[in-house]
Amino acid sequence: MATLSESDALDVLLPVQVGRVRLRNLTLLASGILDELGGSLVRAVRAGAGGVVTKSIGTHPRSGHPSPSFFEVESGAMNAMGLPNPGIEAYGEDMEAVVPEANALGAPVVGSVFAGTGDEFVALTQKMEEYGATAVELNLSCPHAKGYGTDIGADPKVMGPIVQACVDAVDIPVWAKLTPNVTDITPCAIAAARAGAEALTLVNTVKAIAIDPDLRRPILGNTIGGLSGAAIKPIGVRAAWDVWNALEKEGIHPVKNCPLVGSGGVESARDALEYILAGASAVQVGTAFLRQGYDVFGRITEGVRAWLDEQPEDDLRAVVGTAHL
Ligand SMILES: Cc1cc2nc3c(=O)[nH]c(=O)nc-3n(C[C@H](O)[C@H](O)[C@H](O)COP(=O)(O)O)c2cc1C
User: Fold this and answer.
1) Is 166 labeled as catalytic in the residue annotation?
2) Of 35, 114, 196, 313, which is most buried by a Cβ count within 10 Å?
3) In the structure, what pLDDT confidence band is assigned to residue 149 with cuts at 50, 70 and 90?
4) For ligand 1, what atom is nearest to the CA of residue 85?
């Protein structure tokens, strides 16, 4: 496969608007895929990412779950990292290292945060704004950290007010990242959109367990982890599909009022297009980055642009959600 040089990658433009956030192209690096260091995020931008999402950052430093905390399976990967991070105070330095350079290259930095309470979420969101994040993504969906993520984000009555409090506390857009580990994702999507979320990221990893028959024990140190990669793409696409329909029914336009950002198994342009046609305005790339490396962003963008050249529409925005027609 051809390798894009960094200067070529910067020419791969397909600007996309997600609420107030303008991406250089439709791809974002998903949260937690690279170490939290600013330098690696800048490298992703130079390699062609339309924007980057930071690792989820919490109030205090956290070492995460015992290893093994990540391994690949045939159709993706399993992880139970346990939200390791240096804490929001220390993270200021990494934001300083990434924000000016990413922004100069036309790519926004979305600060991801996780917390156990609304007050903590608000404080973290304000800090990300202070650090120059273009938007903040609330991790309401990590499936393997007790008291965080899904424990909060699966209940619309709990997560709605948290989103609202964060929206009220900052001027930057607040995105809500939702969990697929619920019977129906749409009540959470509606709660977040009504609370003022400017975009919904769909979805985080799917709760899963793997067992080693030789050891007769679960493989992950935390036993339960999250499945990502190709295996979960149809789950993510279905989430985008359902949320598109649910928002439309509520009179919330899923492009103009509360755009969707697809996450889960995006490995190629065709995968990205599935999300776009189901209703997403942009996509995040996680596990595929771990498998394909930095070229993945340029490759997806070029493929989508080539596809668009063959369509009657000349703007990607006009194509979003059109599989529903
Ligand atoms: C190793 C690893 C670490 C992750 N860490 C985070 C995280 O800190 N915060 C978060 O919101 N999502 C996290 N995720 C979920 C990804 O951001 C993404 O939503 C998910 O992996 C699905 O996308 P993919 O199939 O492209 O990987 C992590 C995923 C992996 C594989």
Assistant:
1) no
2) 114
3) confident
4) 8
